[in-house]
Amino acid sequence: MPKFFVESHQINQNIIHLTGEDAKHIKTVLRAREGEEITVCDGLGIDYFCRITSLEDGVVAEIVDREQCQSEPKTKITLYQGLPKADKMELIIQKCVELGVDRIVAVSTERCIVKLDKKEEKKLERWQKIAEAAAKQSGRGKIPEIAPKVLRFSQALAEAKELSGAIIPYEKEQGRDIRSFVTGFTGEEVGVFIGPEGGFTEEEIQSAVEEGVLPITLGKRILRTETAGMTSIAILLYELG
Predict the structure, then answer these.
(1) What is the mean pLDDT of residues 71-78?
(2) Could you tell me the pTM of the whole model?
(3) 108, 151 contact by CB (below 8 A)
(4) Phi then psi for 138, rounded to 5 degrees?
(5) pLDDT, position 133
(6) pLDDT tens digits for range 150-189
(7) Checking phi first, is residue 24 left (phi over 0); if not, alpha (psi -120 to 50) or beta?
């Protein structure tokens, strides 16, 4: 059943009013008709099962039933992603949202080649739209946030101190893996730091350790930046739920 997100003001008692691109998609792409069913989410974890009653002014749907969305993980993961080259960030956002990430922060690190500068605002807007599309496709109960600005590495470390814990995959780490990290972990929020194509400098790793971020190994193979975040999130959510 197709799923769409709305804001609270679009829900009035047992009626939901969809407008804009969502209404256009329902009418022209899905070619829906009155009486057909759709799922609408308020972005706060509640799914509304609805029946379309009108296609005149946008799309009007009547709420038939509602329930707590079952697809949201209990562990909130924030991905701190070093800015990658080309369009890799779009792939990272799409797949990490599908996997269950809660928030994604673009980070400028020492070895980042990409500098967004004047393109930053438009890029962030596009990335948020990609997150929304992935959330719809994967049946999420919320649209993960793309942080509204790119952070410097030091800023990201300072922010992550507010979380229950944080990890940073590092190729020179040999002993601690994600399973070691989650053993005994009782928090609800985890930060994951992923470097750009060139990885992190040793100075950045040292800074991370000083701020309480734990280096971990992802195995004997070196993973690409677009693979490392997905792998870390998948393992964390498998282990922590």
Answers:
(1) 95
(2) 0.90
(3) yes
(4) -95, 0
(5) 93
(6) 999 999 999 999 999 999 999 999 889 999 999 989 999 9
(7) alpha
